[in-house]
């Protein structure tokens, strides 16, 4: 008995035009999404950067302004570069155009962290970066609060991010600049991120303030009790605890020789 040959199922191949059509639809959808994102972003008046100056504060202020908007608007990382370059003007926009064209065609997309580093490399001369790197390594809290110290630490680190190898290294650098008292409390925790180290330092600082205020209140109370004790009972305005006898201080028996009495008329008589 002969078996029938298996039926062959013909699958229509996907033609190149069909694939390209799908890609075009995806591309259109992505373009529309990013276009709407840009419209929304511009409503919040993002900062623009067009300076050709190498002044660190100018670049730093723009970077911080952009990052603040990224955080407030929940901008995903894949959109950050696209939105940022739309805020470049003049020499800065020309610089980015040259930098983008010089990248290999198979290079991965530029991340915001990479873009920020490229920007600092362009606008910070080596002498400025070396000076800021030295300042960061020598930075100490001193008499400043933890918040003030962290702000300066963050400012310098933003300008020279290459100084720290990773987040644990950043946390270690921050902790070493704390006051000796706070350093002892924070470094023993072996925290692995800068954010955790900053939070722990602030909590330790608040604890020190509470303990200091408590000690000052106790010292003030001790001084008050000591002053009242030295001033005597009458200083408190309360009657004495042990009132004097009505005979004390009136001379009834004071200076009298044994065996003598005083007559009603005041003459002394001998027994």
From TrEMBL:
Instruction: List the source organism.
Output: Ananas comosus (Pineapple)
Q: Where is this region: Disordered?
A: 210-271
Domain Retrotransposon gag span(s) in chain numbering: 83-179
- Gene assigned in the entry: LOC109715431
Biased composition annotated in UniProt, kind: Low complexity: 254-271
Record protein name field:
Uncharacterized protein LOC109715431
Q: Domain of life, per the record? A: Eukaryota
Q: Which Pfam families match?
A: Retrotrans_gag (PF03732)
List the InterPro entries.
Answer: Retrotrans_gag_dom
Q: Which portions of the chain have biased composition (kind: Basic and acidic residues)?
A: 210-228
């Amino acid at each position: 008995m002969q078996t029938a040959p298996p039926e062959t199922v013909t699958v229509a191949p996907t033609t190149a035009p069909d694939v390209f059509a799908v890609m075009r639809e995806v591309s259109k959808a992505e373009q529309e999404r990013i276009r709407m994102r840009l419209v929304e972003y511009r409503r919040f008046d993002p900062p623009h950067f067009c300076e050709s100056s190498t002044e660190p504060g100018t670049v730093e202020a723009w970077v911080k302004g952009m990052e603040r908007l990224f955080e407030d608007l929940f901008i995903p990382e894949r959109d950050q570069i696209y939105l940022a370059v739309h805020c470049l003007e003049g020499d800065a926009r020309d610089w980015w155009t040259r930098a983008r064209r010089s990248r290999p065609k198979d290079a991965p997309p530029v991340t915001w962290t990479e873009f920020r580093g490229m920007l600092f490399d362009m606008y910070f001369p080596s002498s400025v970066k070396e000076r800021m790197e030295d300042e960061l390594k020598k930075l100490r809290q001193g008499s400043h609060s933890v918040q003030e110290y962290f702000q300066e630490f963050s400012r310098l680190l933003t300008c020279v991010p290459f100084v720290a190898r990773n987040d644990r290294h950043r946390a270690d650098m921050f902790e070493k600049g704390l006051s000796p008292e706070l350093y002892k409390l924070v470094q023993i925790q072996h925290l692995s991120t800068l954010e955790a180290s900053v939070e722990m330092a602030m909590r330790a600082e608040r604890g020190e303030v509470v303990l200091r205020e408590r000690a000052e209140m106790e010292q003030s109370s001790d001084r008050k009790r000591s002053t009242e004790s030295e001033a005597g009972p009458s200083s408190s305005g309360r009657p004495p605890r042990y009132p004097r006898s009505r005979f004390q201080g009136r001379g009834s028996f004071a200076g009298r020789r044994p065996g003598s009495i005083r007559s009603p008329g005041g003459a002394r008589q001998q027994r």
